[in-house]
Design brief:
By secondary structure, the chain is mostly beta strands. The protein has one domain (about 25-165): Immunoglobulin-like (Sandwich). The protein has one helix and eleven strands, in the order H-E-E-E-E-E-E-E-E-E-E-E. The radius of gyration is 20 Å and the shape is globular.
Length: about 170
C-alpha cells in the first residue's frame, strides 16, 4: 500500500469529522408564544400548504402571551424561539409541522382535507425566529388543539399546543 494512502484517508476522515461537528443544534428555547401581529413582506405560492400560499413576514410583535386563540378570521398565533447550538450565526434548516384539530382543515377550492402541514424553514443558530399560522379564511377557523412542532435532523426540539376556541377564557 502506498505511504500516502493512509495519510490521505486520515485527512479525509478528519475533514469529515470537523464538518459533522461544524453545526451543532443542541436545543430550541421557546421565548414567546401566543397571538402575534406582523407585516407581510411577500406571499409565495405553496401548493403543499392548505391555503396554497406561504407568507414571508417581518416586524413580528407579540400581542398576547396565551395558548388560547379566538376562533376568528384574522387571528395569528405561533412561537418565537432561539436555536441553541454552535457556532452562533450558522444557518440551519428546520422542519416546521402544524398539526390541526382531528376534523382537519378542508380547503373548498382544492377539495382537500389536511390533518397537518409540514414545511421547511431557514433559521440561524443564536437568533430568535418566528413561526406561526394565520387564520385567513373561514374554512381555516377550526376549533380544537393546534400543535406547532419544530424539528431538526429527525429530532423534535420544540412543541407548543394552542386551543382554538369560540369561548375565550381570561385564565391561562
Amino acid at each position: 500500500m502506498p505511504g500516502w494512502l493512509p495519510l490521505s484517508l486520515l485527512v479525509l476522515a478528519l475533514a469529515a469529522a470537523s464538518h459533522a461537528h461544524a453545526q451543532q443544534v443542541e436545543r430550541i428555547e421557546i421565548v414567546e408564544w401566543g397571538l402575534f401581529r406582523h407585516d407581510v413582506q411577500a406571499q409565495m405560492d405553496s401548493p403543499e400548504s392548505p391555503s396554497g400560499a406561504k407568507k414571508l413576514v417581518d416586524n413580528v410583535r407579540l400581542q398576547q402571551a396565551t395558548t388560547t386563540v379566538p376562533a376568528l378570521v384574522g387571528m395569528k398565533f405561533g412561537i418565537r424561539f432561539k436555536i441553541v447550538g454552535s457556532p452562533p450565526g450558522t444557518p440551519v434548516v428546520l422542519k416546521v409541522v402544524f398539526r390541526f384539530p382531528s376534523q382537519g382543515l378542508t380547503n373548498p377550492a382544492k377539495g382537500k382535507t389536511y390533518s397537518d402541514y409540514e414545511s421547511h424553514s431557514n433559521a440561524v443558530v443564536g437568533e430568535v425566529t418566528y413561526r406561526g399560522y394565520g387564520l385567513d379564511y373561514d374554512w381555516e377557523v377550526e376549533t380544537g388543539p393546534w400543535t406547532l412542532e419544530v424539528w431538526h435532523q429527525g429530532r423534535k426540539l420544540a412543541e407548543k399546543t394552542f386551543m382554538v376556541t369560540r369561548l375565550v377564557s381570561s385564565a391561562e
